[in-house]
Amino acid sequence: NLMQQSRLETSEAWSAYWLPIFQTLTTQCTNPCRDIRQLAFSAMQRSLLSPEVTLTDAKEWTAIFGRVLFPLIQRLLKPEVFSSDRDGMSEMRVQCASLLCKVFLQYLVLLSGWDGMFDLWVKIIDIMDRLMNSGQGDSLEEAVRENLKNVVLFMASSGYLVPPSQDASKQTLWDETWKRVDRFLPELRSDLASEGLGTRSGTDQVQGEGENGENEQKETAGQTGEVADVVGGGESDQRK
Fold it and tell me: Where are the domains of the chain?
């Protein structure tokens, strides 16, 4: 391909060949013409999910987030862009939210060895927060909820996002994830817990177990008191 044929270093070749293509496509993804917009998005999606994108060092190809997907979503969130075609831009927001999560999951294994993985994940959560609170309505909110849920499930099942009680080295990632997600999707933890995924840290679990133990003790004490009252009442009646 052109990158291999060029005399540029691999990192320079990526910026010289891939980046301009992506940036052109992202510009057209907000074109007021719906047909042009959809064609640009389809081409960008195919390119972003192509294995050839990751043939360079992580510090180069990870620009697909910071210089391609994030700027595109931020542009879609601008009122003047949204108002150019409300229905069409609404759908584009939904598609971009899904694509962001899809790209992240596809390259998660490669990203896990990159120093910028933590900051990238936090940025993705923040972007999803902005989409969720953009005021668009149910379709986008549902897309954000389901896509983020899928990402968290995959990260958990793959051992990337686990409670500190299972892996102390993951505590910062765990704490920051739920601190941010709880702000705009407070019900997500309980949804995941109902599916058998542990979403509480060891401390939370101990506290929960302690509370359950206290409740059980109170119930037992209450039952004992009721029995004593009944017995006491019976003795009083007999004395009478």
Answer: 2-195
In 3-state terms, what secondary structure has residue 122?
A: helix
The model's pTM is 0.79
- So what's the pLDDT on residue 56? 67
- The arithmetic mean of pLDDT across residues 127-155, rounded, is 93
Instruction: Using alpha carbons, list the distances in angstroms from residue 236 to 62, 225, 227, 228, 229.
Output: 81, 16, 14, 12, 10
What token pair was written down for 126? 């923040």
* Cβ atoms within 10 Å, residue 120: 16
Interacting residues of 18 by C-beta distance below 8 A, sequence separation 6+: 3, 47, 53, 61
pLDDT, tens digit, 9 for 90 and up, residues 21-58: 999 999 999 999 999 999 999 999 999 999 888 876 66
Identify residue 182 by its one-letter amino acid code: D
Angle between helices 117-132 and 86-106 (to 10 degrees): 160
- The single-letter DSSP state of residue 56 is S
